[in-house]
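Progress against Task 2.4 (sequence-to-structure conversion) is shown through the following example record, which the project officer requested during the mid-term review.
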Amino acid sequence: MTTYSTPAFSASWNNSGDFLARLGLTWPDTQTYDQLGTITAQFGETKTGTAGGYSYIGVYGWSVSPCIEFYIIDDSYNPMPINPGSATNKGTVTIDGGTYILYTRAATGSSVCSGVSNWTQFYSVRETARQCGQISITDHFNAWQAAGMTLGKMDQATVLVEVGGGSGNIAFTTANVTAQ
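Structure tokens generated for the chain above:
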């Protein structure tokens, strides 16, 4: 992964297991998203190559108490909309001119939450891919809340690429997350 002086980055991988590159904001786990103001991402990307069994391009982050890992997926190396697998569909919502499918999914392993090895993942998956634009993160959080998907205190919100194998690269000319 290479970062630049403006909020942007590029990344490449070659037959990786789970490769994740991200750029954005972190917080000290003391405030809920609505206490941080309006959280928004701007992104623009071009990609080449492959990404193996799964790939997520969009927004990624965590909250604590409860421990929630979240994804807002706007693009993928695979056909959209991707399915996160073993997930519960919580309906759809229209945000930033696109329809997103909401999912929850149980996860186990290592988390950012101290002492937590079982947590929940939240997903917003755009039905049609896009490679640039605004992601109104707070609007997704509000939609999740309305669907009974409650975040805890905010740990991070980042623009990301995550892939499960393959060989490829991505260039984010914009990867900016703001809270104001």
